[in-house]
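---------- Forwarded message ----------

FYI, see the Enterochelin esterase record below. Original note from H. follows.
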Amino acid sequence: MKHYSLILVFLLAVSSSVCFAQTENAEIKEDFKPSSKNQPGKEYPQVNSQGYARFRVEAPAAQSVNVSLGLGGRGGTDLTKNADGLWTGTTAGPMDEGFHYYHLTIDGGTFNDPGAKNYYGSTRWESGIEIPAHDEEFYALKDVPHGHVQQVLFPSPSTNTSRRAFVYTPPGYTQETSKRYPVLYLQHGWGEDETAWSNQGHANLIMDNLIAEGKVDPFIIVMTYGMTNEVKFGGLRDFKIDAFQTVLVDELIPYVDANFRTIADRAHRAMGGLSMGGMETHSITLNKPEVFSKYALLSGGTYNPEELKDSSKPDLIFISAGSKENPERVLNAVSALKEAGYNAVSYVSEGTAHEFQTWRRSLYELAPLLFSK
């Protein structure tokens, strides 16, 4: 069963293409505007109020241009060339709200859209597009006190190098020099890296807004590379958590505790992750229950009472998924955990699949539960 659950997480990650909302005979509104993820001054790609996306690419010598949308780039939108050599096309239906990866396939070659900013996903830098969400205010850039996201390089004897992590410190961290903070270790998914939660997930803005609204007691977030991208499709059965577990538990955590004002004990340390980062969270928290007291799986599998019974009891188990991701599995797992006496919480993101809007919303729901007094 363990292998089955890991494979399910991996399949969700690599097979997730962009989802289109169900519409019947919908007329496309011509109120398209540039995506918020565009390069400065670039008009395309564009999105409209219904969630359709429109692309325009200049490739006069090309024979075919296709836009592949979603993690892994499956499916796509064929573009049509006009007399000026401009290729244009609109998605077949409205896309799910939130962030999506995409790339161009031009005459069989893979390219990024010069109009869009790039984000690391699908084990490469991909173009990104943002479909405005009805609830986007919770991760919007607002006129509130902001924390800092800084890059650190920490020594890793086990891998014979220095490794990178990004650390979010909340507003006031640099002024309140005697205050110490709990820590959430937050992992990205397959094909992504330690930049994902800040760039695609807006984790820092989610925290800034929650803190400004008084909904969260401030804490630190640490994001590092999960050493997952060497895992190829069909090879997950052979994935071993040991190397990354050593990096995280024996190298990164001591570095963070020594260099940041943390409350360095189990009660004030949490681990969570999305997709394959959830799988890593599942394995490490079961292997090292003395290190973390709060667990979070975001579209990243589930726990069951049997595998937890011989471990130190966690203070919180949070499990989430999108409504298009078999949410019954999450709800059933949390129900079983509650019956067994665990403080377990489920969350289902309505109208989303295996994508960042699910995980943004999940972090928004999770954060107030972690270290509240």
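H. also flagged this: Confidence is low (pLDDT under 50) at residues 1-17.
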